[in-house]
């Protein structure tokens, strides 16, 4: 069989993408009577808001309804966690520039835009808190601090032979999914609504729409065939967009499309959390770390959203693949008057792992060693401890293996010498080499979210319909899960019809996030398919008078002893014997537990490992730089689909590279975000990809945990491999501090040039 | 004359009903109910992401990718366009480019893909650098490696362009908009005299943004693209005579040779899509302080030919043309006709620089064009023009004075760097702080020394 486990198949819609046939939400045939909705956004970052007069919008041509907080039949609350009040439309106060105030619905989009512009919100300005330092000074926090500790960090710091400290910051990141946020809500009978949403979390769209409408969940059906990119940005943010469209459809009784224009999307939806890091550490003369006390302060923006989970992941990844005996790590979610930050590929992990890099850099400087020597000396496992401060064990052998392979792949030693020679010879250009090694925990931080469902149906011609709770945002989940089902039934993947994610078919799902899509949904589909296969095997065994165990499903045939029939023939036979050919499957990740107060437990099913080496070239006169080469080794266990995994690794690396170098969010003094589109917010282009870009999947490394076919998750981990670029820039500049994103300006500043 | 917009779309002539709004974007029309071609996507509505890329098929066989989000419908009159739907063969078979992209795993979410496919289809014929071909198309999923692989394997399909519609000018009205497409210079000047407030559309990459993103609906648009005099491009021993309506895409080949540094700079201006529409005349008319094409005009001493119906032609120096932030000498009834660009003198060093967060398709933080005339180890003349440092593109008088007559030595440039601090008081914005602009401009001046004194050295990160 060519299309089961481990086959390098293409993304399920690849050819439909290239011909333009693949339909995104905005491409669907528009229902008759469709109205268009536009958000009115706050022009002020912080202020007291008088009740908004919607009459000026209602008086504009083409307007059908204009909706503010007073028009919400249910609750004006879009909080995904339920732990804080987060509003769909501002009431009493505005807390960030670009905050939704109201929704205007008109016959055409331009009429709605004009009407939204006609609103005159009365806002008494209040001073905005824009910087993390200000928020920290004012103790402006969205939740109580999270403290992870082991041993007596203070005592160990005092006793350590060498004292180190540091402070640095990293920036946020706009998701820049190419398809902006969109929802199309269509009213049905009895208050039913169907919402076509570009969402990673259809169930949450359903819940929040129902909460806003004040109706039962069973009245709202949410569908998503595909997204034009998600990256975490369509986890909680798609929910309120969907809820707003649903509200408009309910209020107007007509189908309503809410598509955020790029600028509105960038103004009103959350981004990756910027972080400020402050730390003290102690090491011995050999650079072995003995103690660490660190504060990781995340800029949560104006509301909690998913900041609790983001900070939890940052804190649990602060030591990354290293061991420090005495540790205290404090995670804070600061409240500022910027758009509420949210999930973004890595979910706090990418920020968290920066900490140890800064600490290792300082230890290397203090002890006169290379970063890599100090890194190797502090790896978890081997002579050092392998237990994380929260109580889970890392695999020291895999940490050392990915790093050894990355070093080999990159020809580290030879290039180090070559680069040093170049740097001695050129008047203004400098090359730099950097490394990074990752241990990334896989599972949702909230134990309850680690569950998934699937619905598999076999038809009497042997064709198969597959549905599960996972969503397709380009990452190749649909083809991977289809491969799982193909493997179970011993048929080619073409026999399997991949269908849109729908709250009607599989209820109560988790978001497609935290890299867990194929782990969770692959198992759920496997359970469903296996249940049907068992029934079919029983039927075949009965027909042929053989044992069930002797029945094999391979190459589209079902065989036992000398008997054989096609899969479709057996399906038809089962129907004739009145045997059900449809099954649901359910999976929950085993052995997870977490104590959020003690910050101890077993939050991750397993760890994904990776290592990378990057080389940069920079100009000391201008700060301009580029990546010349990147080499990386990523542990994907036994890959379900190496082509898809390779695409995830390459894409994640480049996205991480953008976050760390060219992607800069810029607010003016009044708190207005001024980087609102690709003309001002620069994601990597093709020339920014390293011209030498070697990616290797770790070989012969089946997952040790009981994952689906011993594969490992791949969505997020490789984004962090781009951290090697930061280290390479620090190598080339020799600077002790280099804040992120390392734009040419920050590099020149680190060099003392401005 | 009140006509209908007519163009060839995917090989079939489309004559739009009278009253079709001529100032709407091509993208809106393509995705709308009349065409129903939703393969072309809106990703940003500002001509930067490329998801809306379509290709203009020129009568000479050239394929010019365009951003449908910036192109106005009236501008398409007489042209031949192809969208992603129009690539498929008889019986709906995918085009080899479409197959190559799919087989290379060059799609993930697929939203950018139709635009990239169209850029690929044009690139297969046009050739050149793969990165230039892709600079106008953003992909957030793949990391581009598989796309670059697919691009490196493309072959031209040798398909001829459809016969052109052979239409010249026109005048289209709809929903309160008048779109004038004059076919000769006297008509243009006469119209300008009566419509001093009409948008003068030289390419539309700037004005198109006001429609696409800001949803403006100008009552009158005066489009320059059908005036033959403005399309004239001529190379002579003295220099180039560049019609104000010549696109960057057409201009670039003429810049090879003496103007090669300027060509390299302009290949970083926008993208192929933008350069397929944008013009030097438009960049001058917009008069942005960060217009990429403008510092070379200042450094080389370009002369700009203006014309009006009432007063005929006049010629002004580029130095005098900019009068303030986005202000020029252009009178309300005047139109830019031509730019005369002198060649850099013998024994000169001609350097064009641009600092930006991203190498391709980014707006300058600072740009600079330097022209040094050398005589026996000394700098006989220095012309140093900067963008992004003041309210207009401007020359650095103090730094020029410091270099003039000085020896070609590192110390001379250190002195010039000190003088440069007196020339400009730059602003801070999202592209860079005032300090970075000053330090970056100084860095470029220091780099000029190495470029002039050690031409054998690779001096910037993309040269290695």
Q: Which residues of chain A form runs of ≥5 with pLDDT under 50?
A: none
- Tally of helical runs of chain B: 16
Helix vs. strand class of chain B: alpha+beta
Mind telling me which CATH architecture of the largest domain in chain A this is?
Answer: 2-Layer Sandwich
Please, what is the average pLDDT of chain A? 98
Give the helix level of chain A as a range of percent: 25-40%
N- to C-terminal distance of chain A: 62 Å
Please report which band the strand proportion of chain A falls in: under 5%, 5-15%, 15-25%, 25-35%, 35-45% or over 45%. Answer: 15-25%
In terms of quaternary structure, the protein is heterodimer
- Computed over alpha carbons, the radius of gyration of chain A is 27 Å
Q: Regions of chain B with pLDDT < 50 over 5+ consecutive residues? A: none
Mean pLDDT of chain B: 96
Outline the biggest β-sheet of chain A. Answer: 8 strands, mixed
Strand order of the largest sheet of chain B: 2-1-5-3-4
The CATH topology of the largest domain in chain A corresponds to Aldehyde Oxidoreductase, domain 4
Structural class label of chain A: alpha+beta
* Anisotropy-based shape of chain B: globular
Task: Please provide a written account of the structure.
The complex is a heterodimer of chains A (754) and B (464). Chain A is α+β, with helices and mostly antiparallel strands. Chain A has 3 domains: 31-126 and 175-268, 2-Layer Sandwich (Aldehyde Oxidoreductase, domain 4); 275-445 and 596-750, Aldehyde Oxidoreductase, domain 4, CATH 3.30.365; 451-588, Aldehyde oxidase/xanthine dehydrogenase, molybdopterin binding domain (Aldehyde Oxidoreductase, domain 4). Helix content of chain A is 30%, strand content 24%. An 8-stranded mixed sheet of chain A has the order 3-5-1-12-9-10-11-20, sandwiched between helices. Chain A has a 5-stranded mixed sheet with strand order 7-15-14-13-8, with helices on both faces. The model of chain A has no long low-confidence stretch (mean pLDDT 98). The model of chain B has no long low-confidence stretch (mean pLDDT 96). Chain B has helices at 26-31, 96-103, 113-126, 130-134, 145-152, 185-194, 207-212, 248-255, 260-266, 272-275, 280-286, 294-300, 318-321, 397-403, 410-423, 434-453; strands at 6-9, 12-15, 53-57, 63-67, 80-82, 170-174, 177-181, 199-201, 220-223, 233-235, 239-243, 303-308, 312-317, 322-324, 327-328, 334-342, 348-355, 366-375, 378-387, 394-395. In chain B, 60% of the residues are buried. Chain B folds into 3 domains: 1-170, Roll (Ubiquitin-like (UB roll)); 228-342, Uridine Diphospho-n-acetylenolpyruvylglucosamine Reductase, domain 3 (2-Layer Sandwich), CATH 3.30.465; 355-453, Enolase-like, domain 1 (2-Layer Sandwich), CATH 3.30.390.50. Chain B is of the alpha+beta class. In chain B, the strands form 5 sheets. In chain B, strands 2-1-5-3-4 form a 5-stranded mixed sheet. Chain B has a 5-stranded antiparallel sheet with strand order 10-11-16-12-13. In chain B, strands 6-7-9-8 form a 4-stranded mixed sheet, with helices on one face. Chain B starts with 5 loop residues before the first strand and ends in an 11-residue tail after the last helix. Chains A and B meet through helix 1, helix 3, strand 27, strand 28 and helix 17 of A and helix 2, helix 3, helix 4, helix 5 and helix 16 of B. Chain B: Keywords: FAD, Flavoprotein, Iron, Metal-binding, Oxidoreductase. Chain B: InterPro entries: 2Fe-2S-bd, 2Fe-2S-bd_dom_sf, 2Fe-2S_ferredoxin-like_sf, 2Fe-2S_ferredoxin-type, 2Fe2S_fd_BS, Ald_Oxase/xanthine_DH-like, Beta-grasp_dom_sf, CO_DH_flav_C. Chain B: Residues 3-87 form the 2Fe-2S ferredoxin-type domain. Chain B: This is Xanthine dehydrogenase. Chain B: It comes from Teichococcus wenyumeiae.
């Amino acid at each position: 069989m060519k299309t089961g486990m481990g086959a390098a198949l293409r993304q399920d819609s690849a050819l439909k993408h290239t011909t333009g046939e693949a339909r995104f939400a905005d491409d669907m045939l528009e229902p008759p009577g469709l109205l268009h909705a536009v958000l009115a956004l706050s022009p002020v970052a912080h202020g007291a808001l008088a009740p908004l007069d919607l009459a000026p919008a209602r008086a504009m041509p083409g307007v059908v309804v204009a909706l503010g907080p007073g028009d919400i039949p249910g609750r004006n609350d879009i909080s995904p966690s339920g732990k804080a009040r987060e509003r769909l439309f501002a009431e009493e106060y505005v807390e960030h520039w670009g905050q939704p105030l109201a929704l205007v619905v008109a016959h055409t989009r331009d009429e709605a835009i004009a009407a939204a512009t006609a609103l005159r919100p009365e806002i008494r300005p209040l001073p905005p808190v824009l910087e993390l330092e200000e928020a920290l000074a004012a103790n402006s926090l969205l939740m109580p601090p999270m403290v992870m500790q082991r041993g007596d960090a203070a005592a160990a710091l005092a006793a350590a032979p060498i004292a180190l400290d540091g402070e640095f910051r990293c920036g946020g990141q706009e998701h820049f999914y190419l398809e902006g946020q969109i929802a199309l809500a269509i009213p049905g009978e009895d208050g039913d609504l169907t919402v076509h949403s570009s969402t990673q979390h259809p169930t949450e769209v359903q819940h929040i729409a129902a909460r806003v409408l004040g109706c039962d969940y069973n009245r709202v059906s949410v569908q998503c065939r595909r997204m034009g990119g998600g990256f975490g940005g369509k986890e909680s943010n798609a929910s309120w967009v969907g809820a707003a469209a649903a509200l408009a459809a309910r209020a107007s009784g007509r189908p309503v499309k809410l598509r955020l224009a790029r600028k509105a999307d960038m103004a009103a939806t959350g981004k990756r959390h910027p972080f400020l890091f402050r730390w003290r550490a102690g090491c011995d003369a050999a650079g072995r770390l003995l103690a660490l006390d660190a504060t990781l302060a995340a800029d949560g923006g104006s509301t909690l959203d998913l900041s609790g989970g983001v900070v939890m992941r940052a804190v649990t990844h602060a030591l990354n693949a290293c061991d420090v005996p005495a540790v205290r790590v404090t995670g804070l979610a600061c409240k500022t008057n910027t758009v509420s930050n949210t999930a973004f590929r890595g979910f706090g992990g990418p920020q968290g792992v920066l900490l140890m890099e800064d600490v290792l850099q300082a230890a290397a400087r203090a002890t006169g060693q290379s970063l890599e020597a100090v890194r190797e000396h502090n790896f978890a496992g081997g002579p050092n401890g392998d237990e994380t401060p929260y109580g889970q064990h890392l695999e020291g052998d895999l940490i050392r293996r990915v790093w050894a392979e990355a070093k080999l792949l990159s020809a580290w030693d030879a290039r180090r010498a070559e680069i040093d020679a170049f740097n001695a010879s050129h008047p203004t250009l400098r090359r730099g080499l950097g490394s990074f090694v990752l241990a990334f925990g896989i599972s949702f931080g909230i134990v309850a979210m680690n569950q998934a469902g699937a619905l598999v149906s076999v038809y009497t011609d042997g064709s198969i319909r597959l549905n599960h709770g996972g969503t397709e945002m380009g990452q190749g989940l649909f083809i991977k899960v289809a491969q799982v089902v193909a493997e179970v039934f011993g048929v080619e993947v073409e026999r399997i019809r991949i269908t849109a994610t729908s709250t009607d078919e599989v209820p109560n799902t988790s978001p497609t996030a935290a890299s867990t899509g194929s782990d969770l949904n692959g198992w759920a589909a496997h359970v469903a398919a296996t249940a049907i296969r068992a029934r079919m095997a029983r039927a075949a065994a009965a027909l042929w008078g053989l044992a069930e165990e002797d029945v094999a499903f391979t190459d589209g045939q079902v065989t036992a002893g000398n008997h054989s029939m096609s899969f479709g023939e057996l399906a038809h036979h089962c129907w004739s014997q009145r045997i059900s050919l449809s099954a649901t499957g359910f999976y929950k990740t085993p052995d997870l537990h977490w104590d959020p107060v003690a910050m101890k437990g077993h939050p991750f099913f397993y760890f994904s490992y990776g290592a990378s080496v990057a080389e940069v070239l920079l100009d000391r006169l201008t700060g301009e730089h580029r990546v010349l080469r990147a080499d990386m080794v990523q542990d994907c266990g036994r890959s379900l689909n190496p082509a898809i995994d390779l695409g995830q690794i390459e894409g994640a690396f480049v996205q991480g590279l953008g976050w760390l170098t060219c992607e800069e969010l810029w607010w003016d003094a009044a708190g207005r975000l001024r980087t609102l589109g690709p003309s001002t917010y620069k994601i990597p282009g093709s020339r920014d990809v390293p011209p030498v870009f070697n990616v290797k999947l770790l070989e012969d490394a089946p997952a040790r945990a009981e994952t689906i076919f011993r594969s490992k998750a791949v969505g997020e981990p490789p984004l962090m491999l781009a951290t090697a670029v930061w280290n390479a820039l620090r190598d080339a500049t020799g600077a002790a501090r280099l804040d992120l994103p390392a734009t040419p300006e920050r590099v020149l500043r680190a060099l003392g040039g401005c | 004359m009140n006509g209908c917009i007519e163009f060839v779309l995917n090989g079939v002539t489309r004559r739009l009903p009278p009253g079709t709004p001529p100032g709407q974007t091509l993208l809106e029309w393509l995705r709308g109910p009349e065409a129903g071609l939703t393969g072309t996507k809106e990703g940003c509505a500002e001509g930067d992401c490329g998801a809306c890329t379509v290709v203009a098929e020129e009568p000479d066989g050239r394929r010019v990718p365009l951003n449908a989000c910036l192109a106005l419908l009236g501008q398409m009159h007489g042209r031949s366009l192809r969208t992603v739907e129009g690539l498929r063969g008889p019986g709906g078979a995918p085009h080899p480019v479409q197959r190559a992209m799919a087989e290379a795993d060059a799609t993930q979410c697929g939203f950018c893909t139709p635009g990239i496919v169209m850029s690929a289809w044009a690139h297969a014929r046009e050739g050149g650098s793969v990165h230039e071909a892709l600079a106008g198309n953003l992909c957030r999923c793949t990391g581009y490696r598989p796309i670059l692989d697919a691009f490196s394997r493309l072959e031209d399909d040798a398909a001829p362009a459809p016969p052109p519609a052979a239409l010249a000018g026109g005048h289209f009205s709809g929903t309160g908009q008048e779109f004038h497409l004059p076919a000769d210079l006297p008509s243009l000047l006469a119209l300008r005299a009566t419509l001093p407030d009409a948008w003068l559309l030289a390419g539309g990459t700037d004005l198109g943004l006001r429609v696409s993103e800001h949803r403006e609906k100008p009552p009158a648009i005066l489009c320059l693209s059908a005036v033959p005099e403005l399309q004239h491009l001529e190379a002579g021993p003295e220099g180039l005579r560049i019609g104000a309506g010549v696109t960057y895409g057409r201009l670039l080949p003429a810049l090879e040779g003496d103007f090669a540094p300027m060509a390299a700079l302009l290949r970083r201006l926008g993208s192929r899509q933008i350069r397929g529409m944008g013009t030097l005349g438009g960049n001058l008319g917009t008069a942005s302080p960060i217009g990429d094409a403008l510092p070379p005009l200042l450094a080389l001493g370009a002369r700009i030919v203006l014309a009006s119906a009432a007063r005929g032609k006049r010629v002004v120096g580029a130095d005098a043309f900019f009068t303030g932030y986005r202000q020029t000498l252009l009178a309300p009834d005047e139109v830019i006709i031509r730019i005369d660009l002198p060649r850099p003198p013998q024994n000169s060093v001609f350097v064009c620089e641009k600092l930006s967060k991203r190498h391709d398709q980014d707006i300058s933080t600072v740009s600079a064009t330097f022209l040094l005339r050398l005589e026996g180890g000394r700098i006989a003349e220095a012309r140093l023009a900067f963008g992004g440092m003041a309210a207009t593109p401007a020359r650095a008088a103090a730094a020029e004075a410091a270099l003039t007559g000085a020896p070609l030595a590192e110390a001379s440039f250190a002195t010039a760097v000190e003088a440069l601090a007196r020339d400009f008081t730059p602003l801070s914005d999202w592209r860079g702080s005032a300090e970075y602009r000053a330090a970056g401009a100084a860095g470029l001046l220091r780099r000029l020394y190495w470029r002039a004194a050690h031409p054998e050295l690779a001096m910037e990160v993309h040269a290695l």
